[in-house]
Amino acid sequence: MGLRGSDQAPVRVVVVDDSVTMQRWLRSVLSKDPRLDLVGVAGSATEARAVIKATNPDVLTLDIEMPGMNGIEFLAHLMRLRPMPVVMLASAVSPDSALVRRALAIGAVACVPKPTLPTPESMAALCDSVFAAAHGHAQNGHDADQSAYHNKILLIGASTGGVTAIERLLARLPDDIPPIVIAQHMPQSFLESFVRRLDRLGPHRVDFTRSRMQLAPGDIRIAPSFDVQTCVTWHSNAWHIQEIARDNAHRFCPSIDVLFASSTTWAPQVGALLLTGLGSDGAKGMLALRRNGARTMGQSQNSCVIYGMPGAALALDASEAEADIDTIGAEILSRMQGKRAGQATL
Known about the structure:
The chain is elongated and about 65 Å long. The protein has two domains: 124 residues, Response regulator (Rossmann fold, 3-Layer(aba) Sandwich); 184 residues, Rossmann fold (3-Layer(aba) Sandwich). With 346 residues, the protein is α/β, with parallel strands linked by helices. Helix 9 links the parallel strand 13 and strand 14. Helix 9 packs parallel to helix 10. The chain has eleven helices and 15 strands. Strands 8-10-7-6-13-14-15 form a seven-stranded parallel sheet, with helices on both faces. A five-stranded parallel sheet has the order 2-1-3-4-5, with helices on both faces. 33% of the residues lie in helices and 22% in strands.
């Protein structure tokens, strides 16, 4: 086989597939590889929860198409509550299919076609993929992007006290970051000087958002306070800026709630932060994001100038955790990579 093991204990594997025939075939193939230890099999998302809790596997193989809660839905649930390496198995799925892109965006290590002809080579490739995934590598499938934040985006909302908070947050970010879009409550004239200052202070290029702008990793964009609301949308394998007309339903422009809510469809790809500020703008949008699989955090009370917005999010259970301004950036990025498990259970 392509990837050789070491003297370490075999990798613990759980198979999730609704087909009894496929379960038996996977059991036969995986059990013959000394690097792998098949510790459990489940036929549905409900069974999978119990098996994962009972066996504590190192890696999961997951059928991308299952009845009830399908593999994509279960993957999003899993990555939010118990992140772990997952190899998606699919029948006749092309590398550029929407299902494959969705699975990789949510956090799957690889998507591997189910062999139509179970040759020794195809069986060895499957075992290699499972072994590699358990050790953090994509192998013999539709590999994920090299970036740690492939398909991800970080959205940030702030108001009173946000100028200093954003400066401190951005100054502590690493070079490798997902695209960031910030909604800061501030008149446009002040925002313009703020954007220039941020661009001058840090290593990343900071600028305003513009309609139809495509975002890339490393971009930091600030929503303007004109009479349009800034939204984000995912299409053509990239994040883009979308502007919509301002209405009377939202007091602020830019509105943090509007920005957050615009990304709900793609919530598992999203991280959201609420920083210091008066009022509750962003709390409802953050709640919708969290309920749909986003990673969400608020600034801690003791590091806020005004604890209004983060406090409102915490009261709604919209933020999964809080952190001081000097550590919140690193913490949300870590959670977006699936390195921190949530406090909830499957």
